[in-house]
Amino acid sequence: MSKIIHNENEEFAKRLFLSLENVGYEVKNITHLTIEINKLFSEKSITSHAVRKWLNGQTIPAHSRLLRLADWLGVSPSWLRFGEGGMYKSDIKQFQQSHDDQFSMLLAKIKALTSEELNLVINQIDLIIKIRNMKRN
Fold first, then answer.
1. Closest by alpha carbon to 133, among 15, 28, 21?
2. 18 with 126: CB under 8 angstroms?
3. Can you tell me the distance from the alpha carbon of 134 to that of 2, in angstroms, rounded to the nearest whole number?
4. Residue ranges of the domains in the chain?
5. Which of 16, 24, 96, 120 is found 20 to 30 A from 47 (Cα to Cα)?
6. DSSP assignment string, 96-135
């Protein structure tokens, strides 16, 4: 497997983990998670092995399955698959409309960051989300 594909798969796995975490799933029990995911796919079930490969960054689900996963997780399919656009389907538009000036200023600052600096920002945002979720539980 090429380094680019491997990296792409790993990034998908990170977004999948984050999405699962945000809806309250702990990925400790692959079998339970597979059962939940299979509720989405009535035509052909998914194996625990396939789900494990998604989570380990070895493969990415087929497009039709990815669309259903994204819908189930409440995230944008393009964000889940490629990391593009906003994470949430509706939240980004609402956020942008209600915080237009702040959003524009933030976007301009983000565009000025190096790749390394952007990764630091993403890690900080992930940490904030994780802490918020811990407080909810």
1. 21
2. yes
3. 37
4. 3-88, 99-137
5. 24
6. HHHTHHHHHHHHHHHHTS-HHHHHHHHHHHHHHHHHHHHH
What is the rounded distance in angstroms from the CA atom of residue 135 to the CA atom of residue 137? Answer: 5
3-88 domain in CATH 3.90.1150.10?
no
Determine if the pTM surpasses 0.70. Answer: no
**Residue 75 DSSP label:** B
Contact 73, 23 (CB under 8 A): yes
Q: Residue 18 corresponds to which tokens in the numbers above? A: 């984050």
- Nearest C-alpha neighbor of 70 from the set 27, 118, 18, 137: 18
| Encoded tokens for 128 | 């904030």
